[in-house]
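Risk register update: the risk that structure generation would not scale has been downgraded. Supporting records follow, first protein first.
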Amino acid sequence: MKETFEYAKERVRNKKKHETIDEFRLFNNLLSSMPMAFNLFHPIMLLLKQQPKKVTLALQSVFKNIPICEVTEIGLEFIPTPIEKYTKDKSAMDAYIKFQDTKGGKSIIAIETKYTDVLGVNEARNCMEQKQLLIDTHLFNEEFQRLLKKGEIKLTQIYRNLLLTERYRIVEGLKDSYSVVLSPKEHPSTEEEIRSVTRYLKPEYPYKLSAITLEDFVDTMIRFLPRDYAQVYEKFKERYLAFEKVNLSQIKL
């Protein structure tokens, strides 16, 4: 959307000191997750101001296992500040959705978008405070705590994302929080990345981390949004997802 392009330029012009928006990546590498997140979520940020019930219905249909009653806010490239209150680093949510449940409880969905990239496998330096903060969430079993302290589990990006989401819930006094990875259905690593974390969550918390396919998200927006907005997602689908299978044996080198 023209409006999305203008919004992206505005975010770069008014980039705050703590923000990690990369101008080159945003405008020059459309295979990266950052511009993809803007293309996916900025249109419904706009529509939420005009027709909130339609946006709520669409997102209820995407996140079927999350008790969304009313979507109240959608945002992009979000680092809560002051960072000392949250994770004490520059971990960011690619996108977020705030909502109320049927009893008025306030919750957040933090979304990590992926297309060709995989979640980082490297551990941040000087992350002992973040490791303790992760343990202090009380989401994980004793085996995880032991392995994390021994260094046998690294504080990789997927753990940092979950920590940021949960710390935001705690600091802001929200009822619940959900971390979701949004990636193509045939993405090579998403399912394994999710399993590598959920295996250590206490029995009552596996719902905290889940995956949604990019195909389901886009198809749902096309079905539920007004025509002028649905067309945006049809264009997105054509550009990002409408690829035919290639028979490699028929390609002559």
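Supporting record for the second protein:
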Amino acid sequence: MKKPAPLLVYTVLRLLAFLVPLALMWFFFPIFREFWWLAAIFAALIGASISLIFLRAPLSNASTRIHERRAGRPVAGQADADIEDAAIDGRTDDTDRA
């Protein structure tokens, strides 16, 4: 069985860290049904705290995976820069000879 992508795992866990406290506040505290924006703020604070404490390993895995993917790709402008460098070096050699 293939392992799920680390970024997907981290994203789902972060969403759960926000949505579960929001749902608990919404259903068990009637005052938050009226002040939904306050429930969202508290849920965001609780979710951020949960993710800082418990989700360090998934964050590390996701960022490592992103770094590996970025390191494997050539830089977009590198081919153009190489051609320009070759043209400049060729021109420099011509001017040095004259």
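Helices lie at 6-28, 31-34, 36-54, 56-72, 78-97. On this basis the risk owner (M.S.) recommends closing the item.
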